[in-house]
Amino acid sequence: MLNWKGLLNDSRRKSKGQVAVPGVESGRYQFERDYDRILFAAPTRRLADKTQVFPLDRNDSVRTRLTHSHEVSTLARSIGLRLVYEKEDIFAGAEPGQFLHRSVPAMLAAIGLVHDLGNPPFGHQGEVAIQNWFKGNCEVILRGMSFDDARDFFGFDGNAQTVRLVTKLQILNDRFGLNLTYGTLAALIKYPVPVSGVDEKQWKKQGYFKSEQDVVDDIWRETGLEQGIRHPLTYVMEACDDIAYSVLDAEDTVKKSFASYYDLLRFLKRECGSDEVAARVIKKSEESSSSFEGQGLSPQELNECSMQMFRVYSITEMVGSVVDTFSEKVDCLLKGTQIYNGLISESKSKKLCKALKRFDFEYGFKHKSVLELELKGNTYITEVMDMLWVGVHGRLAQRQQSSTPFGKYAYSRISESYRRIFEDESNDLPVGYKEAQLLADAVSGMTDSYLIALHSELKPLYDSHCK
Description:
By secondary structure, the chain is mostly helical. 64% of the residues lie in helices and 0% in strands. The radius of gyration is 23 Å and the shape is globular. The N and C termini lie far apart (63 Å).
């Protein structure tokens, strides 16, 4: 059975057998330091230019991956505060008092902020593009590694890339990445299985790559977890992601005039029927919207004000549902029982959340302008991977293509720190695996705008190289 003492382990990997540089005694708890390390990391800043739903949007009010991450983090911290103050007894075995009251909200805020750090440019479509590139080039990929190893890339996932980023790629002068606490590292692993453990009925995605298996094994040992068993607080973060994804993407859909506030209410009334939670949200929203009338607001202002109040009422209902459901399920989670569909699916808000996701899909994700930009993003990613591969493939063996002027130039355009990890002789993974991983590291770390700019820079040079 899991215990909170292990799950809230605030020691760090670097402190084991290493001489750690002491931190500034600022009164911060270790999980608060984790949040700060993530906040100041360069990949976090890059999320400002990565797609949430609407690629390359010029409306500053529409969410990017960074604003989404901050919102998930804020929701997670809020739920953490309610849990430690209203439901403190569920944390039996944890260090009580200030440690608990500050550590749980801070850990939840940290994993909320970091949860999308490994996502590639152009959102989910970017993941699909990377997967398809590796599948489309499987013949050459499989010459350098086994099929089992290649599955890491055929099923490339941003969650696994996040684990890699924070444990290895964000290096200063050592190999511990951001050197986050064991508790935070365990809780940010959304899918606690490697690619061999993926199962459509249970964990639908891989949570880490073969290259990080040693790190993950260490995390399991230090927290009492094991493969297939998720950290209980990960469920809270996942629920906050569901809340943000469903409610806030609906707000952006209305913001972009793909639908109106009234379209949303009609949709929910049809989809949710007599559901009590949805009915309360709709009733309160309609009352607020009515109060705005007669104040001289334009139709657009009325639409936006009404959506803001809808957002408030929806989030309030969902957050309350998550607090109650987690409190009810936590004993089962500590015994190792898993809820594969997530906390929201077990809560009173499940119908509202599900209906909002359908609204987002029908009115937002399927809009012609979104599909068109996703198609362009797919093309940019595919062609940039083609071009960088010339410089990566055969680099360690000094083969001819990578030694061409274009191959050398393409290789030079990859992050120096990523290249250093790739060239590290102590890395005993198959050469083909390291090549594929360097390519995935390079592309997934790019912002939308940088990817497009690099494509424009390399394309004419690549065309000349291919003649």
